[in-house]
Amino acid sequence: MPCRTSGFDTALALAASAALGIVMTALATIFALVPLALGLSESAGIVGQPLAITVIGGLTSSTVLTLAVVPALYLVLQGRRQERIRERRTNPAS
Known about the structure:
By secondary structure, this protein is an all-alpha fold.
């Protein structure tokens, strides 16, 4: 049987390679919008502050989802799949 990497190893490798870029992009955008969200910018107009707050919240939640929730969900589903495969191998008549 050929040697394959486990789902955990794959998820860990992908998360490690993508995490730095995702975090840096999100933080750069959030820090750029902080003055607008705090109302320190005069050129914002009426929509500026609420939009900046919304974008900061959306970036924060999507970054957490991307880096924590999605890989964890993948690992849970991969574990269930592996259990079903093991059950089928041990009980082929069922």
